[in-house]
Design brief:
The protein is α+β, with helices and mostly antiparallel strands. The chain has 2 domains: 9-320, no CATH class; 342-401 and 442-487, no CATH class. Helices cover 56% and strands 7% of the residues. The protein has helices spanning 7-13, 23-44, 64-71, 82-101, 124-142, 147-154, 156-177, 200-206, 224-230, 232-252, 257-275, 277-280, 284-287, 293-306, 309-316, 322-352, 385-392, 395-398, 438-441, 443-467, 469-477, and strands spanning 50-51, 105-108, 119-122, 213-216, 220-223, 364-366, 372-374, 406-409, 420-421, 427-429. It has a 4-stranded antiparallel β-sheet, with no helix packed on it. Its main location: membrane.
């Protein structure tokens, strides 16, 4: 006798799959464009001729042979170094060893659709502190010539290539391995609801398996997604900034307050995320999205190599902020961080214990789904007021670069008033490049705005399905998405 099939199951079988990121086209576009974009940034804003390279300011008379010299083009074969690849893989292995040997907090994640809860070993913060302690000792002993710093700056392009290759390989590995997921498996492996479209490119991009894990000899089991989210890429973020500080010292013999400020607040950003590592287990990245190229490339390449553009720029074109400048960007940072942290803390406190007397002043709306939606306090201002604070934090990263842009004059050139002179005799001036450098140093602000708007849209669609009419009522009460009275 054939098994009975409910109407609900039949309806679900014929539901149209909902693509994100513009579907297959978006997946293909992002997968092929982002890496070349980072190479373009690396070459066009350089320490040889300027930021942008002088020839790029005159596209009508552009000579490719001249441009290659200006950007230090190493040839296609020069983009990859097997030695650098080996050291990069050694860095990943080192991160895995710290994950295993350092003390850790053992916890469980949220309940999966299959009813299971995965165990996690959390010690990203202590792993980063241990790594930085080693680098600090090396810097004390050898100064700005500490081999880690010189290796990073001397092989920047090859390091970019190594991490690009690893991100593509990792995305391919987890995609192929996802086909071994069987229903009812004891490891609680499951496929991501948004990664089973049946289109190879899209599923490879978005992530087919929800929480892929792998067991390594002597190290044990590692949750690939959680590991990549807060370890190699985030650690590289800090190390790249430190390397650029050391580079500025080697070029000029001093270090400016602007590059120290940028590196310090970005390090704090990483520390904050790693210290609050348990919170990442409730984020959409972990609970909803599969692990594919989107997260692999984002974690290992996009974050460390795009987010450090400001320090890379300041290493070659020093800027002094002075007390008032530091106070100004510091104030922007303080306000934005307060909005971000206080709003998130209020939300988490309400979710944990909505009956807490300290939250009695907050108003909320009951939904048919049994959930309470805050309509006062921080969350009565905008539906994602935390995103506003998060985006505002991006500005202090870029503001220290000012109206960015510079041109490098060769050693022996006639002295130019207002130029900054390197120890080797080269001069750095704003010149006609002034203003054009913001393409590189403010890209993070633009990108982050797009990212947060996209996240807001995804969340709106998710909540609309979950709450139905209640969500429409809620939106009439809390009208603004992110920025009050604007958006």
């Amino acid at each position: 006798m054939a098994p009975k099939t409910s109407k609900k199951q039949v309806a679900r079988k014929h539901e149209k799959f909902e693509y994100e990121f513009l579907g297959v086209f978006g997946a293909g576009f992002i997968s092929t464009v982002l890496a070349p974009l980072l190479y373009a940034f690396a070459f066009a804003c350089n320490d040889i001729s300027g930021c942008p390279a002088p020839s790029l300011l005159h596209p009508k008379t552009l000579d490719w042979d001249v441009l290659k010299k200006e950007v230090g083009w190493p040839g296609v074969s020069g983009l990859l170094s097997w030695e650098v690849m080996g050291w990069t893989l050694a860095f990943y292995l080192f991160s895995a060893i710290l994950y295993r040997i350092l003390p850790a907090t053992e916890t469980v994640g949220t309940t999966l659709r299959n009813g299971g809860r995965l165990k996690y070993r959390l010690n990203a913060f202590s792993s980063t502190l241990a790594t930085l302690a080693i680098c600090a000792a090396g810097t004390i002993a050898q100064g700005a010539d500490f081999p880690v710093w010189t290796f990073i700056t001397d092989n920047y392009i090859q390091l970019l290539t190594a991490n690009v290759v690893i991100s593509y390989a990792l995305a391919t590995f987890v995609y192929i391995r996802s086909f071994s997921v069987k229903p009812g498996n004891p490891e609680f492996r499951e496929l991501a609801a948004g990664g089973v479209s049946g289109n190879i490119l899209y599923d490879w991009f978005i992530g087919r398996e929800l929480n892929p894990r792998i067991a390594l000899p002597l190290i044990g089991e590692i949750d690939i997604k959680e590991f990549m989210e807060l370890r190699p890429g985030m650690m590289s973020y800090i190390l790249l900034n430190c390397a650029f500080i050391a580079k500025q010292y080697r070029l000029y013999g001093y270090v400016t307050d602007s590059i120290v400020f940028v590196a310090a607040i970005q390090t704090f950003y990483v520390f904050d995320g790693q210290y609050m590592e348990p919170a990442v287990l409730t984020t959409m990245d972990i609970t909803t999205d599969g692990f594919g190229f989107m997260l692999s490339f984002g974690d290992l390449v996009w974050v460390p190599f795009l987010y450090t553009q400001q320090a890379r720029y300041l290493a070659v074109h020093p800027q002094e902020l002075g007390p008032w400048g530091l106070a100004g960007v510091g104030a922007v940072l303080a306000v934005s961080f307060a909005i971000f942290r206080l709003s998130n803390s209020q939300k988490n406190a309400f979710r944990t214990n909505p009956n807490d007397p300290k939250l009695a002043h907050l108003k909320y709306m009951e939904t048919k789904a049994g959930t309470r939606l805050l309509i006062s306090g921080w969350w009565g201002i905008a539906r994602h007021i935390n995103y506003l604070g998060d985006w505002m934090q991006a500005w202090p990263y870029s503001l220290p670069t000012g109206l960015a842009g510079y041109t490098i004059l060769s050693a022996g050139s006639k002295a130019v008033a207002g130029a900054t002179r390197m120890l080797d005799g080269r001069q750095v001036i704003a010149g006609e490049a002034k203003g054009w450098g913001i393409i590189f140093t403010y890209m993070y602000v633009l990108y982050f705005a797009i990212l947060l708007i996209h996240r807001d849209r995804r969340d709106d669609e998710k909540c609309s399905k979950k709450y139905g009419e209640d969500w429409e009522k809620y939106k009439k009460i809390v009208r603004w998405r992110i920025i009050p009275y604007i958006y």
